[in-house]
Amino acid sequence: VSSGLVPKVGRNNLIRQAAKYTSDTREEEDAIVNEYEKSLLNMFGLKRRPTPEKDFQVPRIMQHLYKAHMGDYYEPEPKIVTSWETGFDLPHEDIASRVNTARSYHHEDNEEHYPGMPSNHIRLRFDISTMPSEEVIGAAELLLHREAVWHHVTSGQGHMHRLNIYEIVKMPPDDGGRAGSRFGSRPQPITRLLDTRLIDTRNTTWERFDVSPATLLWSRVAHKENHGLVVEVVQEDEQIPPQGDAERHVRLKRDMHHDVSDREWVHLRPMLLTYSHDGKDTSLRRRKRSSR
Amino acid sequence: NRDSSNSSSGRKNRRKKRKRRNVCQRHDLYVDFAEVDWTTWIVAPPGYDAYYCQGQCPFPMSDHLNATNHAIVQTLVNAANSALTPKPCCVPTELGGVPMLYLDDKSKVVLKNYPEMTVQACGCR
Question: Which of A93, A104, B23, B69 lies 20 to 30 angstroms, CA to CA, from A251?
């Protein structure tokens, strides 16, 4: 069965060429062309021809990654943005030199919450099970976008927030609601703090967190054993959830950002970026023209 | 210059040029993804310079033809008896990678540097 990777005209020409090597059955000619298509798919690491929706948006971060990797070879083209994203660039040279693939993942929207979850927490679970098995993860980072908010802080450090990133090690059992009812609260997942960072809500930038060990683990276990991450935001001075406009500083939940269109949300929502290597001899190092 | 083009030196020059054109070398080949209907899933680049190798592997083989020891011996055997074996082939001897930004079959965005996509040098092998 054709994968659709070879256009119709090309396919007919290939079938004509294949006819020279087969007896005169059309099935045999088709089989030869299908084999050729399979090797094309293999080359790209695909199972079938991708069929994205017409208005599919490619996250700006990925466009920047492409542009940064192209380095001196980059030539402006209409499908790629021209501006740079604040706080984002290629990964460090020692990572870029040992990987040749970058993949982006958005979290599962319908799993952002679990029962009893505090309002200033959000669960980010990324389905990385689609990554080809021959690829080995070299590094992974969680990217969170934050937008400057202007609020009335007369004194103290009210504009400083703390971002805590936890890995969910174990979820409570499904009957957790009943089990925890003795204390009037639901049992919470077992988590491990991966990173913590103080942020100034007066700035707009991307925050990058190294989540390599957790992602490597997810790539080795079944999807249901990947419980994801939890992001917590607190006001640094009072250790309480951010209030008012400040609550929307870090772009975590879609329902907090009604002012952002769906098309724009694709570019601002949390993202997991994995850097992997498929064993072939190339890298994502920035390309530089050698001087004469 | 009509005079020089008709002169024997002009004819010689043209013959030399034609010979040079037939020698194994890299030729331009631009792969336009629109032509194979791949622009629906490849975001960038829109195409790339792939090049190809074509031409004769003549005797004597100059250094730039990157001939292997095997190709030199094959040339000798061909000279002794061309019916026994053909001349060496003109093939890519150095290949380079091309980075692509594309959507995979699960609509995930991928940036990957594919090796051996573009010819950097040709030679007789």
Answer: A93
- Residue B104 burial by Cβ neighbours in a 10 Å radius (0-12, 13-18, 19+): buried
Quick: pLDDT tens for A54-83. Answer: 888 999 999 999 998 998 888 888 788 767
Closest CA to B98 of A46, A50, A66, A10: A66
User: pLDDT value at position B17?
Assistant: 66
The ipTM value here is 0.87
Do A192 and A229 meet the contact criterion of CB atoms below 8 Å apart? no
H-only helix segments in A155-195:
176-179
Put the strands of the sheet holding A121-124 in their side by side order: A121-124, A229-235, A160-170, A190-200
CB atoms near residue A124 (< 10 Å):
24
Looking up tokens 């792969």 gives B31
CB pair distance less than 8 Å for B105 and A281: no
For residue A182, count other CB atoms closer than 10 A to its CB. Answer: 7
Rg of chain B, C-alpha, whole Å: 21
The beta-strand segments (E) located in chain A are 101-105, 121-124, 136-146, 160-170, 190-200, 205-210, 229-235, 271-277
| DSSP 8-state symbol, B15 | H
Q: Which residue of A has its CA nearest to B35?
A: A7
- Residue of chain A minimizing CA distance to B34: A7
* Structure tokens belonging to residue A68: 């940064």
